[in-house]
Amino acid sequence: QVQLVESGGGLVQAGESLRLSCAVSARTFSIYAMGWFRQAPGKEREFVASITWIGGTIYYADSVKGRFTISRDNTKNTLYLQMNSLKLEDTAVYHCAATRSYRFTSSRDYDSWGQGTQVTVSS
Predict the structure, then answer these.
(1) Which residue from 86, 68, 119 is spatially nearest to 15, judged by alpha carbons?
(2) pLDDT of 33-74, one tens digit each?
(3) What is the Cα Rg of the chain in Å?
(4) Which among 5, 53, 59, 65 has most CB atoms closer than 10 A?
(5) pLDDT per residue as tens digits for the range 61-112
(6) In whole angstroms, what separates CA 1 from the centre of its chain?
C-alpha cells in the first residue's frame, strides 16, 4: 500500500522547463522501481521514465531522452522529473507510479498510481 501525490505541473511556453515532484508515503521498502507516465487527450498512456529505488537504474522513452531527467531522493521519499526544452507534444497529464516488480517500463508492471498533474505547453 503506497500513496503517491504529484505536484509541479502547470502552463509553460515551448522551450521552457518544469519540475514535477511525487511524494511517496511510508513503506518505500516495498518499492523496487518508480516511474513517470503521461496521457494526452485521445492518446494511450505513455511511458516516460523509470528509476529503481535503491540502485538508481534509469530508463527513458526515446521521445524525452536528452530533455527529461528522472531522479529520486530516498531520504525525502520523493521522486522527481526535470523537464527541459518542453515541446507542445509534451502536453499531458503526468502520473507517477510505483512497483514491486522487477519489470518497470510498462504501465502494467506498476502497482500504485498518483492522481496526476497537468502539464500544458503552449507556443
Answers:
(1) 86
(2) 999 999 999 999 999 999 999 999 999 999 999 999 999 998
(3) 13
(4) 53
(5) 999 999 999 999 988 999 999 999 999 999 999 999 999 999 988 999 999 9
(6) 19
